Amino acid sequence: MTAIMLRADQPFDLDRTLSCGQAFRWEKADGRWQGVVDGRAVRIRQDAEALTFAGADERFIRDYFRLDQDLPAVLSSIDRDPAIGAAIRECRGLRLVRQPPWECLISYLCATNTNIPAVKRRVALMAERYGRRIDGPFETAYAFPEPEALAKVSCADLWDCKLGYRTDYVRDAAAYASEHPDWAERVAALPFEEARRALMEFRGVGPKAADCVLLFAFGFFEAFPVDVWIRRIVAETYLPDLTGRSCTPAEYERIRRFARDYFGEYAGYAQEYLYCARGPARHTE
DNA sequence: TGCCAGGGTTCTA
DNA sequence: TAGAACCATGGC
């Protein structure tokens, strides 16, 4: 086991960070989190300012959890009103992790019109069946399958991973990514709006999924994904003239541009804090 | 049992 | 171009 002593002036809340719904491969048992990230089976726990972990080195842990990002400065920049202020107080220490782009893309392809437990199940099934088995600090861990591995899977077998109508989207993305292994590097090198358009070239990736991948994998912090929860919060707090229940493309565009102008370059952090602090109907872990 | 969920695509007017 | 229909599944 390796330990990091966190700086008192740089808050970090492991529980908030891993339970807020941004990543789908972590589970908590006996006070410890275990998950699979980028081919590593990682076990980690937090006791106050001590972060103890196995399965990865300190550099990887710092990079994945963005421990070197100045979180107080980020939160100060988005703390614009009592609503986001309350979310910041409730969830202080939540950090946006740096997810592997390929896994993040497929995870959010699987996250359309569904709930978080179902997404976790789909991702876990794909990993168990088509991912590489990993030795680590806990038993039977599987890496998320590489594009080449998923591209070879039959439609029926992928369907059996509970993907439903998303099956063809995953197969198409796997075929493309295996033929263009530099796809993520090319997206990362683009300006934000161009990167967004590039991600939406994948069939099954619309504005919401693209914004999630930009935020959670590529570190475009101005991305502001609008799901049903965020739309509800924005309508109640910031844009009361929003009508109806569905989010039309024009409305999505209006909300994300409002958020970028209002919260600034770290609007994505505001989104995640509002999402994490949302009301009592939250999902179960 | 019905509604809802980290939506997107396709069809139609 | 906007709105409606449709899509599979699982939690509650």
Automatic annotation (TrEMBL):
Superkingdom classification of source: Archaea
Alphabetical keyword list: DNA damage, DNA repair, Glycosidase, Hydrolase, Lyase, Multifunctional enzyme
Any matching Pfam family: HhH-GPD
One of the protein's GO biological processes: DNA repair
Entry EC number(s): 4.2.99.18
Keyword Hydrolase found: yes
Catalytic activity: 2'-deoxyribonucleotide-(2'-deoxyribose 5'-phosphate)-2'-deoxyribonucleotide-DNA = a 3'-end 2'-deoxyribonucleotide-(2,3-dehydro-2,3-deoxyribose 5'-phosphate)-DNA + a 5'-end 5'-phospho-2'-deoxyribonucleoside-DNA + H(+)
HhH-GPD domain segment(s): 110-279
EC primary class: lyase
Molecular function via GO: class I DNA-(apurinic or apyrimidinic site) endonuclease activity; DNA N-glycosylase activity
PANTHER family with a match to the protein in the record: 8-OXOGUANINE DNA GLYCOSYLASE (PTHR10242), N-GLYCOSYLASE_DNA LYASE (PTHR10242:SF2)
Family the entry assigns: Belongs to the type-1 OGG1 family.
Protein name, as recorded: DNA-(apurinic or apyrimidinic site) lyase
Source organism of this protein record: Methanoculleus palmolei
